[in-house]
Amino acid sequence: MNPGSVALVVTDDIGFPSWDLYELSIPCTVFGKPQPDLADPWYDLRLCSTGQGGQDGSPAETGLSLRTRHGLDDLVDADTVIVPSVPDPCVDEGRPLPPELITALRRAHDAGARMVSLCTGAFALAEAGLLDGRRATAHWMHTAQLAERYPKVEVDDSVLYVDDGDVLTSAGLTAGLDLCLHLVRRDLGAHIANQLARRMVVPAHRPGGQAQFIDLSVPTADDRSLGPVLDWARARLDRPLTVEDLARRAAMSTRTLHRRLREATGTTPLQWLLNQRLARAQSLLESTDLPIEKVGELSGLGTANNLRYHFLKQVGVSPSDYRRAFPRTMPEPSPAPEKRPDESRQRTTAARPTPR
Protein backbone atom coordinates (compact mmCIF):
# COMPACT_ATOMS: atom_id res chain seq x y z
CA MET A 1 0.00 0.00 0.00
CA ASN A 2 1.48 3.34 -1.08
CA PRO A 3 0.72 6.08 1.47
CA GLY A 4 1.44 8.76 -1.12
CA SER A 5 3.08 12.16 -0.97
CA VAL A 6 3.05 14.64 1.91
CA ALA A 7 3.67 18.34 1.27
CA LEU A 8 4.80 20.32 4.30
CA VAL A 9 4.37 24.10 4.16
CA VAL A 10 7.34 26.23 5.27
CA THR A 11 6.36 29.89 5.66
CA ASP A 12 9.93 31.18 5.61
CA ASP A 13 9.30 34.41 3.70
CA ILE A 14 7.19 35.98 6.46
CA GLY A 15 9.24 34.90 9.41
CA PHE A 16 10.13 31.53 10.91
CA PRO A 17 10.84 31.72 14.65
CA SER A 18 13.02 28.99 16.10
CA TRP A 19 10.32 27.84 18.53
CA ASP A 20 8.13 26.77 15.60
CA LEU A 21 10.71 24.14 14.69
CA TYR A 22 8.92 21.63 16.91
CA GLU A 23 5.74 21.54 14.81
CA LEU A 24 7.85 21.48 11.63
CA SER A 25 10.01 18.61 12.84
CA ILE A 26 7.10 16.36 13.84
CA PRO A 27 5.87 15.57 10.31
CA CYS A 28 9.48 15.44 9.11
CA THR A 29 10.17 12.71 11.66
CA VAL A 30 6.96 10.76 11.07
CA PHE A 31 6.71 11.00 7.28
CA GLY A 32 10.24 11.86 6.16
CA LYS A 33 12.31 9.01 7.59
CA PRO A 34 11.91 5.81 5.54
CA GLN A 35 10.76 2.75 7.47
CA PRO A 36 11.30 -0.04 4.91
CA ASP A 37 10.78 -2.82 7.43
CA LEU A 38 7.36 -1.41 8.33
CA ALA A 39 6.11 -0.30 4.91
CA ASP A 40 7.82 0.00 1.55
CA PRO A 41 7.30 2.45 -0.02
CA TRP A 42 7.05 4.93 2.83
CA TYR A 43 5.69 8.45 2.47
CA ASP A 44 7.19 10.84 -0.08
CA LEU A 45 7.80 14.00 1.97
CA ARG A 46 8.47 17.36 0.33
CA LEU A 47 9.05 20.67 2.11
CA CYS A 48 7.35 23.44 0.16
CA SER A 49 8.47 27.00 0.76
CA THR A 50 6.22 30.03 0.47
CA GLY A 51 9.31 32.08 -0.49
CA GLN A 52 10.85 32.58 -3.88
CA GLY A 53 13.03 29.52 -4.31
CA GLY A 54 13.63 29.17 -0.60
CA GLN A 55 14.92 32.72 -0.09
CA ASP A 56 16.55 33.75 3.17
CA GLY A 57 14.52 35.24 5.98
CA SER A 58 16.01 37.74 8.37
CA PRO A 59 17.76 35.84 11.18
CA ALA A 60 17.60 38.92 13.40
CA GLU A 61 13.81 38.83 13.32
CA THR A 62 12.97 35.20 12.75
CA GLY A 63 15.73 33.32 14.52
CA LEU A 64 16.73 31.31 11.44
CA SER A 65 16.19 30.99 7.72
CA LEU A 66 15.39 27.86 5.73
CA ARG A 67 15.99 26.75 2.16
CA THR A 68 13.81 24.13 0.51
CA ARG A 69 13.89 22.38 -2.86
CA HIS A 70 10.17 22.75 -3.44
CA GLY A 71 7.77 25.64 -3.84
CA LEU A 72 4.01 26.03 -3.69
CA ASP A 73 3.54 24.47 -7.12
CA ASP A 74 4.78 21.18 -5.61
CA LEU A 75 2.15 21.47 -2.88
CA VAL A 76 -0.83 21.43 -5.22
CA ASP A 77 -0.47 17.85 -6.50
CA ALA A 78 0.36 16.23 -3.12
CA ASP A 79 -1.86 13.57 -1.57
CA THR A 80 -1.63 15.18 1.88
CA VAL A 81 -0.86 18.83 2.68
CA ILE A 82 0.27 19.81 6.19
CA VAL A 83 0.50 23.36 7.52
CA PRO A 84 2.51 22.92 10.76
CA SER A 85 2.05 26.50 12.02
CA VAL A 86 1.91 30.09 10.88
CA PRO A 87 4.08 32.93 12.22
CA ASP A 88 2.98 34.62 15.43
CA PRO A 89 2.30 38.01 13.76
CA CYS A 90 -0.29 36.34 11.54
CA VAL A 91 -2.09 35.08 14.65
CA ASP A 92 -1.58 37.87 17.16
CA GLU A 93 -1.46 40.94 14.90
CA GLY A 94 -3.55 39.79 11.97
CA ARG A 95 -0.70 40.07 9.46
CA PRO A 96 -2.02 38.55 6.23
CA LEU A 97 -0.74 35.22 5.02
CA PRO A 98 0.77 35.12 1.53
CA PRO A 99 -2.12 35.10 -0.97
CA GLU A 100 -0.24 32.60 -3.10
CA LEU A 101 -0.24 30.18 -0.13
CA ILE A 102 -4.00 30.53 0.34
CA THR A 103 -4.55 29.97 -3.37
CA ALA A 104 -2.31 26.88 -3.34
CA LEU A 105 -4.18 25.42 -0.35
CA ARG A 106 -7.51 25.86 -2.13
CA ARG A 107 -6.16 24.33 -5.32
CA ALA A 108 -4.75 21.33 -3.42
CA HIS A 109 -8.07 20.76 -1.65
CA ASP A 110 -9.99 21.06 -4.92
CA ALA A 111 -7.62 18.48 -6.43
CA GLY A 112 -8.53 16.01 -3.67
CA ALA A 113 -5.65 16.43 -1.22
CA ARG A 114 -6.15 15.63 2.44
CA MET A 115 -5.62 18.92 4.30
CA VAL A 116 -3.99 18.94 7.74
CA SER A 117 -3.02 21.65 10.20
CA LEU A 118 -0.98 21.49 13.39
CA CYS A 119 -1.39 24.15 16.08
CA THR A 120 -1.78 27.60 14.47
CA GLY A 121 -1.71 26.11 10.98
CA ALA A 122 -5.50 26.07 11.37
CA PHE A 123 -5.46 29.82 10.67
CA ALA A 124 -4.17 29.12 7.16
CA LEU A 125 -6.84 26.50 6.46
CA ALA A 126 -9.49 28.81 7.87
CA GLU A 127 -8.27 31.73 5.75
CA ALA A 128 -8.58 29.48 2.69
CA GLY A 129 -12.19 28.73 3.67
CA LEU A 130 -11.47 25.04 4.15
CA LEU A 131 -12.78 24.98 7.73
CA ASP A 132 -16.08 26.75 7.04
CA GLY A 133 -18.92 24.72 8.54
CA ARG A 134 -16.47 22.22 10.01
CA ARG A 135 -15.41 21.35 13.53
CA ALA A 136 -11.73 22.20 14.07
CA THR A 137 -9.19 22.84 16.80
CA ALA A 138 -5.87 24.55 17.47
CA HIS A 139 -3.72 25.17 20.54
CA TRP A 140 -6.05 26.23 23.36
CA MET A 141 -4.17 29.53 23.73
CA HIS A 142 -5.26 30.52 20.20
CA THR A 143 -8.71 28.97 19.81
CA ALA A 144 -10.53 32.13 20.97
CA GLN A 145 -8.76 34.16 18.28
CA LEU A 146 -9.53 31.49 15.69
CA ALA A 147 -13.24 31.49 16.59
CA GLU A 148 -13.46 35.28 16.62
CA ARG A 149 -11.65 35.76 13.31
CA TYR A 150 -13.44 32.92 11.49
CA PRO A 151 -17.02 32.68 12.84
CA LYS A 152 -18.00 30.05 10.25
CA VAL A 153 -15.63 27.56 11.90
CA GLU A 154 -16.91 25.39 14.75
CA VAL A 155 -13.89 25.70 17.05
CA ASP A 156 -13.42 23.06 19.75
CA ASP A 157 -10.72 23.97 22.26
CA SER A 158 -11.11 20.83 24.37
CA VAL A 159 -9.64 18.11 22.14
CA LEU A 160 -6.24 16.96 20.91
CA TYR A 161 -7.26 16.74 17.27
CA VAL A 162 -10.28 16.62 14.98
CA ASP A 163 -10.59 14.19 12.07
CA ASP A 164 -13.23 15.50 9.68
CA GLY A 165 -12.37 13.10 6.89
CA ASP A 166 -10.48 15.10 4.29
CA VAL A 167 -9.62 17.96 6.66
CA LEU A 168 -7.86 17.35 9.99
CA THR A 169 -6.69 19.82 12.63
CA SER A 170 -4.74 19.41 15.85
CA ALA A 171 -3.88 21.31 18.99
CA GLY A 172 -0.31 22.45 19.54
CA LEU A 173 3.00 20.77 20.27
CA THR A 174 2.66 17.07 21.17
CA ALA A 175 -0.94 16.92 19.92
CA GLY A 176 0.54 17.40 16.45
CA LEU A 177 2.46 14.17 16.92
CA ASP A 178 -0.76 12.43 17.97
CA LEU A 179 -2.43 13.57 14.76
CA CYS A 180 0.50 12.51 12.56
CA LEU A 181 0.47 9.03 14.11
CA HIS A 182 -3.30 8.99 13.59
CA LEU A 183 -2.70 9.62 9.89
CA VAL A 184 -0.26 6.70 9.75
CA ARG A 185 -2.88 4.59 11.49
CA ARG A 186 -5.46 5.60 8.88
CA ASP A 187 -3.12 4.99 5.96
CA LEU A 188 -1.13 1.93 6.99
CA GLY A 189 -2.97 0.42 9.93
CA ALA A 190 -2.74 0.20 13.69
CA HIS A 191 0.12 -2.30 13.71
CA ILE A 192 2.50 -0.08 11.75
CA ALA A 193 1.44 3.05 13.67
CA ASN A 194 2.05 1.27 16.95
CA GLN A 195 5.49 0.09 15.86
CA LEU A 196 6.42 3.58 14.71
CA ALA A 197 5.22 5.08 17.99
CA ARG A 198 7.30 2.54 19.89
CA ARG A 199 10.40 3.60 17.95
CA MET A 200 9.63 7.22 18.81
CA VAL A 201 9.08 6.26 22.47
CA VAL A 202 5.62 7.84 22.60
CA PRO A 203 2.14 6.48 23.41
CA ALA A 204 0.84 4.38 20.54
CA HIS A 205 -2.53 6.08 20.42
CA ARG A 206 -4.17 9.01 22.16
CA PRO A 207 -7.73 9.45 20.90
CA GLY A 208 -8.47 12.85 19.41
CA GLY A 209 -11.25 13.49 21.89
CA GLN A 210 -8.87 13.42 24.85
CA ALA A 211 -8.58 16.71 26.69
CA GLN A 212 -5.81 19.13 25.65
CA PHE A 213 -5.08 20.23 29.19
CA ILE A 214 -4.49 17.72 31.97
CA ASP A 215 -3.66 19.01 35.43
CA LEU A 216 -0.54 17.14 36.53
CA SER A 217 0.11 19.30 39.58
CA VAL A 218 -2.24 17.39 41.90
CA PRO A 219 -0.71 13.94 42.34
CA THR A 220 2.21 13.64 44.73
CA ALA A 221 2.42 9.86 44.80
CA ASP A 222 4.52 7.80 42.40
CA ASP A 223 2.21 7.17 39.43
CA ARG A 224 4.51 4.47 38.12
CA SER A 225 2.26 2.18 40.16
CA LEU A 226 -0.27 2.42 37.31
CA GLY A 227 2.09 0.86 34.76
CA PRO A 228 1.90 -2.76 35.98
CA VAL A 229 -1.89 -2.78 36.33
CA LEU A 230 -2.39 -1.30 32.85
CA ASP A 231 -0.02 -3.87 31.36
CA TRP A 232 -1.93 -6.56 33.26
CA ALA A 233 -5.21 -5.32 31.80
CA ARG A 234 -3.85 -5.16 28.24
CA ALA A 235 -2.88 -8.83 28.48
CA ARG A 236 -6.47 -9.72 29.49
CA LEU A 237 -8.61 -7.64 27.17
CA ASP A 238 -10.46 -10.77 25.99
CA ARG A 239 -11.68 -11.42 29.54
CA PRO A 240 -14.37 -9.73 31.62
CA LEU A 241 -12.74 -6.76 33.35
CA THR A 242 -14.30 -4.22 35.67
CA VAL A 243 -12.99 -1.07 37.28
CA GLU A 244 -13.08 -2.99 40.55
CA ASP A 245 -10.74 -5.60 39.04
CA LEU A 246 -8.22 -2.94 38.06
CA ALA A 247 -8.44 -1.23 41.43
CA ARG A 248 -7.97 -4.51 43.28
CA ARG A 249 -4.95 -5.35 41.15
CA ALA A 250 -3.48 -1.89 41.80
CA ALA A 251 -4.19 -2.22 45.53
CA MET A 252 -6.16 1.02 45.62
CA SER A 253 -9.78 2.08 45.86
CA THR A 254 -11.84 2.51 42.70
CA ARG A 255 -12.08 6.21 43.45
CA THR A 256 -8.29 6.53 43.70
CA LEU A 257 -7.80 4.53 40.50
CA HIS A 258 -10.25 6.75 38.66
CA ARG A 259 -8.48 9.89 39.86
CA ARG A 260 -4.97 8.58 39.11
CA LEU A 261 -5.87 7.40 35.62
CA ARG A 262 -7.71 10.62 34.85
CA GLU A 263 -4.70 12.68 35.95
CA ALA A 264 -2.26 10.53 33.97
CA THR A 265 -4.21 10.02 30.72
CA GLY A 266 -7.14 12.44 30.71
CA THR A 267 -9.67 9.61 30.45
CA THR A 268 -11.68 7.33 32.72
CA PRO A 269 -10.89 3.66 33.41
CA LEU A 270 -13.89 2.51 31.35
CA GLN A 271 -12.94 4.70 28.40
CA TRP A 272 -9.32 3.56 28.66
CA LEU A 273 -10.45 -0.07 28.49
CA LEU A 274 -12.66 0.68 25.48
CA ASN A 275 -9.78 2.43 23.67
CA GLN A 276 -7.47 -0.53 24.31
CA ARG A 277 -10.08 -3.00 23.07
CA LEU A 278 -10.68 -1.01 19.92
CA ALA A 279 -6.93 -0.92 19.24
CA ARG A 280 -6.79 -4.69 19.74
CA ALA A 281 -9.73 -5.18 17.36
CA GLN A 282 -8.04 -3.00 14.72
CA SER A 283 -4.87 -5.04 14.96
CA LEU A 284 -6.79 -8.31 14.61
CA LEU A 285 -8.77 -7.03 11.63
CA GLU A 286 -5.56 -5.94 9.90
CA SER A 287 -3.46 -9.00 10.61
CA THR A 288 -5.86 -11.98 10.67
CA ASP A 289 -8.73 -13.52 8.72
CA LEU A 290 -10.65 -14.28 11.91
CA PRO A 291 -14.45 -13.92 11.69
CA ILE A 292 -15.89 -10.67 13.02
CA GLU A 293 -17.47 -12.59 15.90
CA LYS A 294 -14.07 -13.94 16.94
CA VAL A 295 -12.46 -10.49 16.70
CA GLY A 296 -15.15 -9.14 19.01
CA GLU A 297 -14.51 -11.97 21.46
CA LEU A 298 -10.70 -11.68 21.49
CA SER A 299 -10.75 -7.90 21.79
CA GLY A 300 -13.19 -7.98 24.68
CA LEU A 301 -15.86 -6.04 22.79
CA GLY A 302 -18.26 -8.97 22.96
CA THR A 303 -20.67 -9.79 20.17
CA ALA A 304 -20.29 -8.88 16.51
CA ASN A 305 -23.07 -6.31 16.97
CA ASN A 306 -21.21 -4.62 19.82
CA LEU A 307 -18.01 -4.59 17.75
CA ARG A 308 -19.83 -2.96 14.82
CA TYR A 309 -21.48 -0.43 17.14
CA HIS A 310 -18.20 0.72 18.69
CA PHE A 311 -16.36 0.71 15.36
CA LEU A 312 -18.95 2.86 13.65
CA LYS A 313 -19.04 5.25 16.60
CA GLN A 314 -15.31 5.53 17.27
CA VAL A 315 -13.60 4.68 13.96
CA GLY A 316 -16.31 5.81 11.55
CA VAL A 317 -16.48 2.66 9.42
CA SER A 318 -17.69 -0.90 9.90
CA PRO A 319 -15.21 -3.65 10.88
CA SER A 320 -15.61 -5.23 7.44
CA ASP A 321 -14.87 -1.98 5.61
CA TYR A 322 -11.89 -1.38 7.88
CA ARG A 323 -10.50 -4.83 7.11
CA ARG A 324 -10.87 -4.33 3.37
CA ALA A 325 -8.75 -1.17 3.63
CA PHE A 326 -5.81 -3.17 5.00
CA PRO A 327 -5.01 -6.32 3.00
CA ARG A 328 -3.29 -8.76 5.32
CA THR A 329 0.48 -8.82 4.86
CA MET A 330 1.62 -9.58 8.40
CA PRO A 331 1.74 -12.86 10.30
CA GLU A 332 -1.11 -13.50 12.65
CA PRO A 333 -0.42 -12.45 16.25
CA SER A 334 -0.13 -15.06 18.95
CA PRO A 335 -3.50 -16.12 20.32
CA ALA A 336 -4.63 -14.70 23.62
CA PRO A 337 -3.45 -16.68 26.68
CA GLU A 338 -5.75 -19.31 28.11
CA LYS A 339 -8.08 -18.18 30.87
CA ARG A 340 -7.18 -19.29 34.36
CA PRO A 341 -10.00 -20.88 36.36
CA ASP A 342 -9.95 -18.16 39.04
CA GLU A 343 -10.45 -15.44 36.45
CA SER A 344 -13.14 -17.07 34.32
CA ARG A 345 -16.10 -16.29 36.56
CA GLN A 346 -18.89 -14.27 35.01
CA ARG A 347 -19.00 -10.57 35.86
CA THR A 348 -20.33 -7.40 34.33
CA THR A 349 -17.82 -6.50 31.66
CA ALA A 350 -16.41 -2.99 31.56
CA ALA A 351 -16.73 -1.00 28.33
CA ARG A 352 -19.32 -3.29 26.74
CA PRO A 353 -22.48 -1.17 26.50
CA THR A 354 -25.27 -2.67 24.46
CA PRO A 355 -26.27 -0.64 21.40
CA ARG A 356 -29.57 1.12 21.71
TrEMBL record:
Keyword terms, alphabetized: DNA-binding, Transcription, Transcription regulation
User: Which parts of this chain are annotated as the region Disordered?
Assistant: 322-356
Here the segments flagged for biased composition (Basic and acidic residues) are 337-346
**Signal peptide coordinates:** none
Pfam family for this entry, one: DJ-1_PfpI
User: Which species is the source of this protein?
Assistant: Streptomyces roseolus
Q: Does the keyword Transmembrane helix apply?
A: no
Q: What PANTHER family is this protein classified in?
A: ARAC-FAMILY TRANSCRIPTIONAL REGULATOR, HTH-TYPE TRANSCRIPTIONAL REGULATOR RV1931C
Q: What range(s) does the HTH araC/xylS-type domain occupy?
A: 227-325
Recorded protein name is Helix-turn-helix domain-containing protein
Superkingdom of source: Bacteria
Q: Where is the composition biased (Low complexity)?
A: 347-356
